[in-house]
């Protein structure tokens, strides 16, 4: 595991000390890489929070390290840690970089554990790196033929069997290799040499028998010439130096195409121009997408004769990485005064060329081309103090919070217009966020892009460079007049984007109204249910009233001048309204209401009056007995 070295190359140079202070911590975290990243973040006093969570930083480092020849770039003196990357040609056939074939060969050998104890792994890796160094930085590809690799593995097994070490030797080797006693130590060294010699000799045999896979293509080879076609968005282009080497090898070019190149700058030519002007029948074009993690672009090997550790990235990627270092690492615009704000620009003009309309690459060795040119500016402002970005709470941050932070950092003094970009940058950051709410890492992005907008508007030549290198869309909230004039659809896209935002706001408002209506609907439903219960009760009461009315009708009571009388014969039965039982004729245990003259059983009336005062028939007041 080489996570420390890979992380060091990924983070800003100003933050190196927070990771570099860990000496070989990897072994203790084997299989728990996220925990090691979290340890880096915890020990940085919050500085590394600009990279998000430990999981996010690990994910980006894993993206960043995925390129051919990465062990050279990261200066890893141990077995190859990378996973070979498969490419395709224009016929969709699989290809693999020749530098990655060494990785496959190493992994094949390490699978024979009985002859490759762990102590020999470093020596095996050193031997393979030495063989790879002999061919320089080869950027060629070979067909990924699984059958051929199976044959190589079979041959490897046969060679190991021929040179098989005894089991006793392996045991003695394991016992003596770490011994501190003089004789045992000497024997350990000798046995170590013997143990390493077997896999090294086997590897040498495999490489020598398949030299075309492990070395640059020779002039009389029957293998096709392979060329990387770099793909970035809708652009397809090739390095002029690679094209020159390939066309000269195929005897179709007399004068090289890379006369403008120097040791720091590498120019390109479009695929369309190559196919239009040159004979390419013996050339296999290999798709080579430009890969980028969030904060850095993946390095690309440079085919320089005699050198095996030279890498580059696109000039536009150099621009963004440099300004990220300038803004968030050095905090240049928080330290510089207004009079010197553009003092650094003349040094940048020689690197970021506004008149170059085609993509070009810049060398990234040591501190890179940009670092060399502007090193004095970094040194001048390295000792000045600047406020650090504050931590965002768990509920996220808003546009007013962003504006307050820009003022707190002193950026409104350097760029009085910076608050004008806060809202549009905030909207873009919110669109690209990884979590449900905006976090501290998102605040870093917002502060960076607000400053980028100010810089580009103040420096037209840099603005022109970013446009010519097709980087305008990578600056949040940036409005490029040239992009709009070249492509009117962009204006429509911007209008559409504004409309989409307005629609999104309307949707939020509608959702809020909808939720309120849903709440009112629930309340109405509850009221309706209550009304229904009351209606049922009313209907029940109406039925009871109807029944009572019918009983009154059937009783054939006559109302005369407000008094009830019984015109019927003594045979008519009178009913007690309280117990609803008949009162026999001549029954003397009765009580009569003085108002309605209705009769009740005296016992029923006495019990009724214990809880009521009114007559159950007319609601008049009953006398107390």
From TrEMBL:
<keyword id="KW-0862">Zinc</keyword>
<dbReference type="GO" id="GO:0045087">
    <property type="term" value="P:innate immune response"/>
</dbReference>
<dbReference type="InterPro" id="IPR056711">
    <property type="entry name" value="DUF7809"/>
</dbReference>
<dbReference type="InterPro" id="IPR001841">
    <property type="entry name" value="Znf_RING"/>
</dbReference>
<feature type="coiled-coil region">
    <location>
        <begin position="496"/>
        <end position="542"/>
    </location>
</feature>
<keyword id="KW-0175">Coiled coil</keyword>
<dbReference type="Pfam" id="PF13639">
    <property type="entry name" value="zf-RING_2"/>
</dbReference>
<dbReference type="GO" id="GO:0045121">
    <property type="term" value="C:membrane raft"/>
</dbReference>
<keyword id="KW-0863">Zinc-finger</keyword>
<feature type="domain" description="RING-type">
    <location>
        <begin position="576"/>
        <end position="619"/>
    </location>
</feature>
<dbReference type="GO" id="GO:0008270">
    <property type="term" value="F:zinc ion binding"/>
</dbReference>
<dbReference type="Pfam" id="PF25100">
    <property type="entry name" value="DUF7809"/>
</dbReference>
<dbReference type="InterPro" id="IPR013083">
    <property type="entry name" value="Znf_RING/FYVE/PHD"/>
</dbReference>
<protein>
    <recommendedName>
        <fullName>RING-type domain-containing protein</fullName>
    </recommendedName>
</protein>
<keyword id="KW-0479">Metal-binding</keyword>
